[in-house]
Amino acid sequence: MTHEFLQTTWFLLIFVLLAGYAVLDGFDLGVGMWHLFTRDDHERRLGLNAIGPFWDGNEVWLLTGGGALFAAFPPVYAVFGPTFYLPIMLLLTALIFRAVSLEFRSKLESRAWRQFFDWAFSLGSLVAALLFGVALGNVVRGLPIDAEQLYTGGFFNLLNPYALLFGVTGVVLLAMHGAAYMACKTEGDLRQRMLGRVVRCWVVFLVLFALVNVYTAVEVPRMFNTAFGRPVLTALFALLALAAVVYLPIAARKDKAFHAFLCSAGTILAGFGLIGVSMFPTFIPSSLEGGVTLSAFEHSSTKLTLTWMFGVAAVGVPIVLVYTAGIYWIFRGKVVLDDHSY
């Protein structure tokens, strides 16, 4: 295996890990965002138990992606970490509040106790989804990285209109994804209301998605230039996105919740695919003239390091996939509350 092959492979694997996190923990975050919009405590417990067996395992995908970036592309990690230090701390705080809320919410019968953790769980989910989207938007747009590979902006530079639009679009997409998942796991009136929310989110997502593409064409034209230079891969992911987006509301209106869930997942995967195709081999482009653009080919670990990592991944990834599939198979079906439920 050549060094270039290993660099390309690890670039793709990191994108796959992030896309996997967005799909799997994405429905967790979506369920959390809908948590305060349920009618009673029974429906809220249904939502908590729908994600109960999966949420902690889903978050491992993000940690693995970060670890892979650190090991395979240390210079990229060295820039990404300090640049997004405060957003990362806010993200971790949001995820911690979600985890604590899941475990502690039902420990007391106190209404005030449960309301506090309901708000913590829902707002933590919203903040985490928003920050993830804003970070991705900033990476696509480019960051002011100087010739010494140092970020020259501040925290509020990260809250630019493009990144915020990217973040809001991500929030709506994950809300749609979470509603589709809840429709898969519930029955009756709650299921129908969730399917209705899928369709409403779909309408909002289409508008935001169109705005993001127009804004990208104006603000970051290199994304389209690179994508058009790779027509086969671009067409593949574009067709996946088109098929998923078109069929999603049809599936929801026909009460095919699982099909709607697959479509929302396909939309997320297609989005990451298009971003990856448009950016490769760049991880973080510099927005400064004379700045350093961090790429997979120029800022990776040694060939020996990447080779050992590849060997570990070749053994570990299939095990993780089989384990994950097994957990989802064991806990398939509708949510049923009992004495051991949240």
Helices and strands in order, then pairings?
Blueprint: H1 3-33, H2 41-51, H3 55-72, H4 74-83, H5 85-104, H6 111-141, H7 161-185, H8 188-219, H9 221-228, H10 231-253, H11 257-279, E1 282-284, E2 294-295, H12 303-330
Antiparallel strand pairs: 1-2
Describe this structure in words.
The chain is 76% helix and 1% strand. Helix 1 runs antiparallel to helix 11 and helix 3 crosses helix 4. It is globular, with a radius of gyration of 20 Å. It starts with a helix and ends in a 12-residue tail after the last helix. It contains twelve helices and two strands. It has one domain: Formate dehydrogenase/DMSO reductase fold (Up-down Bundle), CATH 1.20.1630.10. The chain has a two-stranded antiparallel sheet. It has 342 residues and is an all-alpha fold.
Ends: how far apart?
Answer: 49 Å
Secondary structure tally: strands: 2
Tell me what portion of residues adopts beta-strand conformation: under 5%
Helix fraction, binned, reads over 70%
The profile of the biggest β sheet is: 2 strands, antiparallel
**CATH C-level name:** Mainly Alpha
CATH homologous superfamily caption: Formate dehydrogenase/DMSO reductase domain
How do the SSEs run, as a string of H and E? HHHHHHHHHHHEEH
Radius of gyration from CA coordinates: 20 Å
Second-tier CATH architecture: Up-down Bundle
Tertiary shape: globular
